[in-house]
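4.2 Preliminary Data

To establish feasibility before requesting continued support, the project team ran the inverse folding procedure on a target of 105 residues. The structure was first converted into the token representation described in Section 3, and no sequence information of any kind was made available to the design step. The complete token record follows.
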């Protein structure tokens, strides 16, 4: 996974963001293997949804979860639930079936 460290992306308060399979990490942020596995799960989701459609669905689901869950909207997005639930599993990406995030809706 390509990782670009910088002081601009993501905004202050966030440590990393996956944009089209490239991980942007703030210079001061510490990331470990778990974070990288989490982001690689997002990369799989991004690729299978044709890149741009992932971001469209992500924002739409976040808005829906915001109404339903308020402050915990982010953690309830299906893409995040799949990534958080499996980020400790080192073999997950080898056994993951396509569109697995649907199981976390
Ligand atoms: Zn995530």
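Position-by-position output of the design step:
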């Amino acid at each position: 996974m390509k990782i670009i460290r910088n002081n601009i992306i993501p905004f202050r308060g966030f440590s990393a963001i996956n944009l089209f399979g490239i991980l942007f990490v703030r210079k001061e942020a510490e990331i470990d293997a778990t974070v990288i596995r989490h982001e690689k799960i997002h990369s799989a989701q991004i690729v299978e949804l044709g890149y741009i459609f992932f971001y469209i669905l992500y924002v739409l689901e976040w808005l829906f979860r915001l109404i339903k869950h308020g402050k915990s909207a982010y953690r309830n997005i299906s893409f995040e639930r799949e990534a958080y639930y499996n980020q400790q599993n080192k073999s997950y990406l080898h056994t993951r079936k396509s569109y697995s995030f649907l199981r976390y809706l």
